[in-house]
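Sync notes, pocket subgroup
Present: LS, DG
LS reminded everyone that the earlier model was apo-only. Rerun requested with 1-O-phosphono-beta-D-fructopyranose included. Inputs:
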Amino acid sequence: MCGIVGAIAERNVVEILLEGLRRLEYRGYDSAGVALLSNNGDYSQVRRTGKVNELANAIDAKNGMGNVGIAHTRWATHGGVTENNAHPHVSKDRISVVHNGIIENYQALREELKAQGYSIDTDTDTETIAHTVHSLLATSGSLLAAVQNAVKKFHGAYGTVVMDREDPSRLIVARSGSPLVIGLGIGENFIASDQMALLPVTRRFIYLEEGDVAEITRREVKIYDAYGQPVERGVVESNINHDAGDKGGYRHYMLKEIYEQPTVVRNGLQGRINDSGLVSGIFGEGADELLAKVKHVQIIACGTSYHAGMTARYWLEQYANVSCNVEIASEFRYRKSVVHPNSLLLTISQSGETADTLAALRLAKELGYMASLTVCNVESSSLVRESDMAFMTKAGAEIGVASTKAFTTQLTAFLLLTIALGEKNGMSAADKEMILSGLHSLPSKIEETLTLAKSIEVLAEEFSDKNHSLFLGRGEQYPIAMEGALKLKEISYIHAEAYASGELKHGPLALIDEKMPVIVVAPNNELLEKLKSNVEEVRARGGIMYVFADKNANFKSDETMRVINVPNCNEAIAPIVYTLPLQLLSYYVALIKGTDVDQPRNLAKSVTVE
Ligand code: F1P
């Protein structure tokens, strides 16, 4: 989604802005732009469609100088991908703005602005921010006051940075619904939509809260809350590794992140389990008392995180004896739902900024859930700040748009939560022991499973000319099949659908022929015999199958079936282990097809608009 970078310094800020944009590239975008203002009042602006390098190439000594500047990568929401629609947007050659989010009432604002004599030159909602601030400047007395008055008129979501060509001494920023972080330097300050953009220049950050407006000069940051009152927001020292954005020798971030899984899962378990169970207090202060009262869990998430939630439901009901519903955030937030007694609202998100998930959390607070817990990968995110409890997945920065290590660390977190809730709800000692021993073996099982990469790479050749595919799984492997299908469609653009294999004969069997590869996830569990019958149903109709199976499941390769044996593992961790070959399969298929693995078309890493 859109990325914002801003800087105010004594030095030329152009490289800081461009490097910031490059570091946000992974989030997905279609065009980029920068506006620069020098202390002597010289102003320049460059915008380009395509990659940040196109923008960088268009910058030279004449247009590449500024002591203050704003920059943006755009992911089109209103208006096509054109240079004219790229940010910054300018009003009356004076006010320049960059913006993330959507101004929902932009049509009404346009009419109002046209009546005041402003000409509307782009198809964007953002242009109305520039004109509205400009129109209020004369009566407001200062740029800060103009922005404070302007935001009162906006409905929707915004993170925005405003620059006045007549005043190179300040930037004004405002946040509502879209994240913004201020980076503190010495005699210089910065702003970005994601701290990642600023790691080369600072480690000290202030996270703006909903409704905040801030005035940023070289030496000072003054923050005002939604009521216009001055407020202090804490300074946070980031411990994110500066190199978190490097590929570390791998061809793609996605592959690097797939191979990081043994390490990040190990980190996520460290200090949280011991030989006899969970270390107390791992869900945060006061969480143990709250969790002890939970009788129902409502899970809300989107995309890959939703699949983690679906897997968690199987575990919570099977082992922890706690009832659980799972719903996509964009559905939950717009329908009337019933709150069960003693219900825990559980959100799952890699980024912690997914607009629909965040909106669902806010709605749930009004609906009367007993408490909220988020399982999240970004400590500074809105979901973590706004939830009663947070459990950090510790996956480290995930750059590839297609989520991999975030997913397996989420699943690891849910096995811990299953024990935590199960202990209060009559979980059997045998189940607890099984999950615990599975968790202890998990990092090495992941390592072992990743050694299948070579044979999966060979298998991937057979997919490169296919247009459709079917993924099958049963029980807790059904969401894993869904996640496998999502990975394949996200990065290889092959149409992939997942079915609970018991559902085959209720429709999808009609699709089976030799052109439709069927991928089957088949661990050795109590549903194996049922799954084998489903496999025969496919075989009888001439389907070609690719089966990821436990050796003891006794599948044999033949002309209609390729079998890849997955290392034997216990039932609890099998969904995590079986995720890995599916990640590798989609990676190698995408590689063969030559798609943009890390930044697949039309997608964004962090979906901060509805
Ligand atoms: C949810 C999500 C990701 C997906 C893509 C778009 O994000 O659907 O699962 O890979 O990046 O967003 P999050 O809420 O888990 O950050």
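DG: The pocket of 1-O-phosphono-beta-D-fructopyranose is lined by residues 302-305, 349-351, 354, 357, 401-403, 605-607 (CB under 6 Å).
LS: The chain has 18 helices and 25 strands.
Action: DG to write up.
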